[in-house]
């Protein structure tokens, strides 16, 4: 499987925080939603960390519309050392999350789309399991929150593409530099 991480980010590198989540919503438009739908259509399954799973599984099943129609039926994998059961068409990856994702990538075909950031994302990058990183760069400064990849081993990426989705948001697509 090919693993793509898709994440929203502010100009100052933040991916979470009170200012971040409120500000980024003001930049979504038709082109943004169309690109998000195209990305979901290309996915064969979703990969989520525990916190992202908790947020998504509490909100997406109740939503309607094109994005909900695409995300809800997809098979999902959640990496968690504490979750024992999952709903929303989800399988829990038990044990070492990085090893489990490595095995998943070897055993299946298609595209695995990962949402969310944090320690799980950093571990996947450090292990060399990420095939593509899509940063949805939003034109605002959050000022505080969590940075995308703090405390990570030096990693070089190659710019594979730039997509303008309107309202000042660009998607920078990176692949591992070989």
UniProtKB/TrEMBL annotation:
What InterPro entries would the database entry show? DHFR-like_dom_sf (IPR024072), RibDG_C (IPR002734), Riboflavin_Biosynth_HTPR (IPR050765)
What organism is listed for this UniProt entry? Kribbella pratensis
Residue stretches in coiled coil: none
Looking at the record, the residues that make up the Bacterial bifunctional deaminase-reductase C-terminal domain are 6-170
User: This protein's superkingdom?
Assistant: Bacteria
Q: What is this protein called?
A: Dihydrofolate reductase
């Amino acid at each position: 499987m090919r693993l793509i991480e898709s994440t929203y980010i502010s100009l100052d590198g933040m991916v979470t925080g009170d200012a971040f989540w409120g500000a980024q919503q003001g930049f979504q438009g038709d082109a943004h939603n169309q690109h998000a739908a195209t990305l979901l259509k290309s996915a064969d399954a979703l990969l989520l960390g525990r916190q992202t799973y908790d947020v998504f599984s509490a909100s997406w099943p109740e939503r309607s519309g094109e994005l909900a129609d695409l995300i809800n039926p997809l098979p999902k994998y959640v990496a968690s050392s504490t979750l024992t059961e999952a709903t929303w068409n989800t399988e829990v990856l038990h044990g070492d999350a990085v090893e489990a994702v490595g095995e998943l990538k070897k055993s299946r075909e298609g595209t695995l789309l990962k949402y969310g950031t944090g320690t799980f994302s950093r571990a996947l990058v450090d292990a060399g399991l990420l095939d593509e990183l899509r940063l949805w760069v939003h034109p605002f400064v959050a000022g505080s929150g969590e940075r995308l990849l703090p405390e990570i081993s030096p990693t070089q990426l190659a710019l594979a593409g730039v997509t303008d989705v309107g309202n000042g948001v660009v998607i920078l697509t990176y692949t591992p530099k070989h």
